[in-house]
Design a protein that fits this description.
By secondary structure, the chain is an alpha/beta fold. The chain has two domains: 7-118, 2-Layer Sandwich (Alpha-Beta Plaits), CATH 3.30.70; 122-371, Alpha-Beta Barrel (TIM Barrel), CATH 3.20.20. The chain has 14 helices and 15 strands.
Length: 380
């Protein structure tokens, strides 16, 4: 877990010291502490039975926490004492300000490891509408986390009406833990199973589900194999699942990226290029990725232009994207009737957002599809 340049020593009894030099960021220190806490919490099996080990870690940083090694050791010991007071399997920074941030991150990591073991991740689906005919053509799957009741989760959910945590809050941490692909595989498995059931509802035989995927995940052969397997076992065609990516960078020389795009095209899995509508969106991306659908983010437009946003600007944006891409335009996060009207006038074909439908669980989707106008399906 430690680098070759790290110095490790036993101070006495059950106490050990790790000295790290040439640290570029505090995250490097807390990341090692998280790994040590998690690694040392594993149960060790012996011929006499299982042995459970816990750890408490104190951290101090030069020069902010002390000018010399003796002061740093004293402050580290104080942090260690506080760590033991807070419970086992955690670490404590000496700096109170930095400690608050680091402890929150550590608590999230600990609870996320538990979430995988307890199957606390679930999916919510938001309907995607044909803005011309009004029918439902697909769904976008969002992963949510419903954590066990702990002081940490109660603090995080304080004041919220829902007991679910949005992926915006925890997904980056899951990726940093190296569990992003594992979570995505769970999402693919559940989404394909649900979609196969919904496609049997009269009038929704062409229903699709969109899944969000990072560039790194898209390039992983294990993800591709999982997707192929789930589609096959649920009797779904490859174009039943749409893959949404938000590429901030595109390296045309990267063979893995090119092979991933070749995989999608050869498998006839539609590619949705997300995140258009802000200044960082580049027409070059359209030529490089050759998506099947381009998705506009209305929130990005609001953030970019603020009060300057107008119906005319929305119409012009849709018209421009249609001209540059030559593919259908999908608007996300539509929250007002004025936005929807401008999108329709600009030629946008499909849309989703709170103004149209809120995210719902699988049972609610089933009722929604049965009670709402059926649609032959938006064909790419």
């Amino acid at each position: 877990l430690c680098r070759d340049s790290d110095f490790i020593a036993r101070q006495g009894g059950d106490e050990f010291c790790v000295i790290q030099k040439n640290i570029k960021a505090l995250d490097d220190v807390t990341s090692l502490a998280e790994k040590l806490v998690h690694g040392l919490s594993d149960t060790i099996s012996t011929r006499y039975g299982d042995i459970a080990i816990s750890s408490s870690i104190g951290i101090s940083v030069f020069p902010s926490d002390g000018p010399d090694i003796n002061t740093l050791l004293v402050h580290t010991d104080k942090a260690l004492y506080e760590s033991k007071k807070n419970g086992r399997n955690c670490f404590q920074m000496y700096s109170k300000e930095l400690n608050r941030q680091a402890v929150r991150k550590a608590a999230m990591v600990t609870n996320l490891y538990s979430a995988f073991d307890k199957n606390e991740f679930l999916l919510r689906y938001q309907p995607i509408h044909d803005v011309n005919g009004g029918g439902v053509v697909g769904l976008e799957a969002f992963v949510r986390w419903s954590p066990s009741v702990t002081p940490w989760s109660q603090h995080l959910l304080n004041g919220k009406s829902s007991s679910e945590i949005s992926c915006d809050i925890f997904l980056h941490t899951v990726e940093r833990m190296g569990r992003g692909l594992a979570l995505l595989k769970q999402v693919v498995t559940i989404a394909c199973r649900d979609l196969a059931r919904w496609r049997k509802i009269p009038g929704h035989g062409n229903l699709t589900t969109s899944l969000n995927c990072s560039l790194r995940q898209l390039m992983d052969g294990e993800f591709q194999s999982t997707l192929d397997y789930c589609l096959l076992t649920n009797g779904l065609p490859h174009n039943a699942i749409l893959i949404e990516v938000m590429p901030e960078e595109f390296d045309s020389e990267n063979l893995k990226i090119r092979h991933s795009l070749d995989y999608l095209r050869s498998s006839q899995i539609p590619l949705v290029l997300d995140g258009f509508g802000c200044l960082r969106s580049s027409p070059l991306l359209l030529r490089q990725w050759k998506p099947d659908i381009v998705k506009m983010d209305m929130n990005s437009l609001d953030s970019e232009y603020g009060s300057a946003i107008s119906s005319e600007l929305i119409m012009d944006m849709v018209t421009m994207l249609r001209h540059l891409s030559g593919v259908p335009i999908h608007a996300g996060r539509v929250e007002t009737g004025n936005q929807l009207s401008a999108l329709c006038q600009g030629g946008c074909q499909i849309a989703q957002g709170f103004f149209l439908s809120k995210p719902m669980n699988a049972e609610q989707v089933t009722l929604f599809l049965k009670q709402h106008k059926t649609h032959a399906g938006f064909m790419i």
